[in-house]
Amino acid sequence: MIRIALVTAWLSFLLSMVGALFWYHDWVYQLPTPVPRDYVPVATGTKINLDQKLPNHDGKPVLLHFYNPDCPCSRFNKSHFQSLVRSFSGDVRFMVVVLSDKKFTVDDIQDKIGLDIPVSFDQSLATQCGVYSTPQAALIDTDHRLYYRGNYNASRYCTDEQTAFAKIALEGLLQNESLPILDRKALTSYGCTMPVCKN
Length: 199
Hints:
Helices cover about 35% and strands about 15% of the residues. By secondary structure, it is of the alpha/beta class.
């Protein structure tokens, strides 16, 4: 009888620890990424130079997917990003911009995200778009102007349709609408610092 009580207590303790770790990481995920001291904000409407970085983009809007393979938040976002590419690739060009201090090849990145789309290692694109964490989306309109820069979703696994910010921005741009008014969770950076993920 004592043995059963000890095993039950031990299992309860382990389950409590797993639960505590889960909620701790969920809480950490919801904390904004610290803004770098040298950060310069970039306003929507700013011209973004993509000509040398993404030639032949056919006059379509471009979604830059800022990504770090070591970032758990980037991994949580993988399925959602794949669904956006599948849904919008006829009307929008997609490109992955890798923000990491490690060396990767184009094939490495395409394999990690499960998509055969252009990949750039040019971190100056992050500065141009005002990005300092991953994952982030930057949507550039057909006039090469920044339409949206922000989060994909308020949910860690990008499952909340009401806060599917990047998707809402894509739909608005394709319908020639002004950027919808989005809450601060869309525009406050959450996720991993760049280029070194500290989460």
